[in-house]
Design goal:
Chain lengths: 151, 281
């Protein structure tokens, strides 16, 4: 399994988490499965909405985008695409920044934690690490290509 | 060939990725084909996970009370009486109590989706008496304002109209929408035809705070931990209930009540046909 396979699987897991929280936010799921934290407190706080949409919905959109790009990246013609690696790195980097802000809010503003959000944060960090490794790998390949062309 | 040799000296991962990406040499094309085959297996795995995930989400959405189980009420506590707001016939065979929070999304969903059916089919036909008791949760910033405003409307005999309007307009006055909920609640009071002088004064002076606190204490005494919590006969459940599930629990409770008091069944069957109008208490 390559890094992009792993990214596709992780982003699919994140997409399902985002979809679950979105369904809750729109009232289609009665009660969140939440045994060790305060999911409802976080999900009903004023910070659970960003630019008019639930944060969970933005998250689902983010994961969907990463999933699509990861699957595209599995195609032989894009396997060592530097552009694709860079986009994935930038996207997941932004995801880490946004997640860090959300975790800050949970810790210092809302004073409550949501285990689904923490799960999502873990996925985002793993995606970023994989994207970084993938990006370094494509850079290596590019250097090899350049060296090969020179000879 | 020099290039291939160079690639071999690169990291293993890079070599694996470089081959299928190129497709310029016979060996590489083979690798790409192999990769496509393994990708197909991977897509199958992704599709299976997606289908299972969608099925789980569909299940969660179609079973809103999933994870919440009805449990017997604590019989050592005195029955809830003369508190909250009641609609329905005093002779109804059972009473249903909702501990609700005006700012809770699931309470709003119950009020707007399930409750119209509950009133038309169960309350107005005399099968149940419905009681609403405030349980304002700490996590909701503006919910106390809403409970006080509803109690103020009750002073003018319009609790249920205010109850419905507050839930219907939840997104206008809740903690995400405004830092000044009383302003919106006063507009709502005006819209439902309250005497605005009297109502606004009641809201501004927090005249009904003690009443709401008494209701809140009823919930705390019962160690409730979420809203909406329904007490239906001898069972309580903390979850949004769609009508079918609500009706099922009501039917079970009525059956138990009638089994416990066979002589009372005649009276309750009479009550079903009386279709009393909702009343405030």
């Amino acid at each position: 399994m390559t890094k992009r396979h792993a990214m596709a699987l992780l982003s699919l897991a994140g997409l399902l988490v985002g979809a679950y929280l979105t369904l809750y936010k729109f009232g289609y799921v009665g009660r969140l499965v939440c045994n060790i934290s305060s999911c409802e407190q976080v999900q009903t706080s004023r910070w659970s909405v960003f630019l008019g949409l639930p944060v969970a919905t933005w998250g689902a959109g983010f994961y969907l985008l990463v999933l699509v790009l990861s699957i595209v990246g599995l195609q032989p013609r894009y396997a060592d695409s530097r552009v694709l690696s860079s986009v994935l790195l930038a996207l997941t980097g932004w995801g880490v920044v946004f997640t860090a802000w959300l975790n800050y809010l949970e810790a210092y503003v809302i004073h409550a934690w949501c285990e689904w959000c923490l799960g999502s944060a873990t996925i985002v960090v793993l995606l970023f690490v994989l994207a970084l490794l993938d990006w370094r790998e494509t850079r290596q390949l590019r250097e090899i290509d350049i060296a090969g062309a020179a000879q | 060939m020099v290039k291939t040799a160079k690639k071999s000296s690169a990291s293993t991962g890079a070599t694996k990725r470089a081959d299928p990406g190129r497709g310029r040499h016979p060996g590489v094309v083979k690798a790409a084909k192999k990769s496509s085959a393994s990708n197909r297996a991977f897509y199958l795995v992704i599709a299976v996970i997606a289908v299972v995930g969608i099925a789980a989400l569909t299940y969660a959405a179609s079973h809103p009370a999933n994870g919440a189980a009805a449990s017997p009420i604590d019989t050592t506590l005195p029955p809830v009486q003369s508190q909250g707001y009641v609609m329905g016939s005093p002779s109804a065979p059972i009473e249903v109590t909702e501990f609700g929070d005006f700012e809770c999304p699931q309470c709003g969903r119950f009020a707007t989706l399930t409750e119209p059916d509950v009133r038309a089919r169960l309350v107005n036909t005399g099968q149940i008496r419905f009681r609403y008791i405030d349980f304002p949760l700490d996590i909701h910033k503006n919910t106390w304002n809403a409970s006080r405003a509803a109690a103020c409307a009750d002073q003018q005999g319009k609790f249920w109209q205010m109850h419905d309007a507050i839930f219907a307009n939840q997104d206008r006055w809740n903690g995400e929408a405004t830092d000044n909920p009383d302003k919106v609640l006063k507009e709502i009071g005006k819209q439902i035809g309250l005497n605005t002088d009297q109502f606004d004064k009641c809201v501004d002076t927090k005249a009904t705070q003690a009443k709401v606190q008494a209701h809140w204490k009823l919930a705390m005494d019962r160690h409730l931990d979420g809203t909406p919590t329904f007490i239906i006969g001898g069972q309580q459940i903390a979850a949004f209930l769609p009508y079918d599930q609500f009706k099922q629990m009501v039917d079970d409770a009525i059956a138990k009540a009638q089994a416990a008091k066979p002589a009372a069944s005649h009276d309750s069957s009479k009550a079903v046909g009386t279709a009393p109008k909702p009343t405030n208490k």
